[in-house]
Amino acid sequence: MIILLILGSLVPPLLLVLSLWSPFRRGTIARFLRMSLVDRGLFLIAVAIFLGKILHLGRADFGDCRLLLFCAFALLAIAALRSSYGFLSSRALVILQLLWANELLKAGMGHYGPLWLVAKLYAYCCVLLASYLAVYPYRLRDWLCRRARR
Q1: Burial class (CB in 10 A: 0-12, 13-18, 19+), 54
Q2: What is the SS3 assignment for 8?
Q3: Which residue in 21, 37, 145, 147 is a FRET match for 70, CA 20 to 30 A apart?
């Protein structure tokens, strides 16, 4: 899970850096995220991590139903791959961001030092951003393309 913590902490600063970069590079990144192979690959990685977390659920966290949950979410992921032609990469970034925030908040449970409070605040801000992008996945593309046109 340390890889998940490292990758998840890089997504929001990466989006901030992309907004401050030159227009050509932002347009290139936007086109890169829209490529079918990258789109589906990033989504498969996020779904694999999520399904792995489902397989390791404890008994108190619906552990008795984990096979049913695994099958249901795997079928949903397959349906999303088959029927969705775009925005899978932004949804994958949302999934990874929420999984990262979960791990960070679990690691900081019971710690109330100033650094942990800043880390928790950062995690909650990332959850808000991920929730917004989950509802409006096209906003990430629009944001990158609009910044590229400037």
Answers
A1: buried
A2: helix
A3: 37
In sign, the C-alpha dihedral spanning 2, 63, 132, 34 is: positive
Nearest to 140 by CA among 10, 44, 19: 19
Query: Cβ distance 100 to 9 under 8 Å?
Result: yes
**Exposed / middle / buried, residue 87 (Cβ in 10 Å: 0-12, 13-18, 19+):** buried
CA distances from 123 to 11, 32, 52, 103 (A): 12, 26, 22, 10
Judge whether 16 and 138 are in contact, CB under 8 Å. no
The structure's pTM equals: 0.75
Token pair in block for residue 45: 């990685």
Please, are residues 33 and 141 in contact by the beta-carbon 8 Å criterion?
A: yes
Domain extents in the chain: 2-149
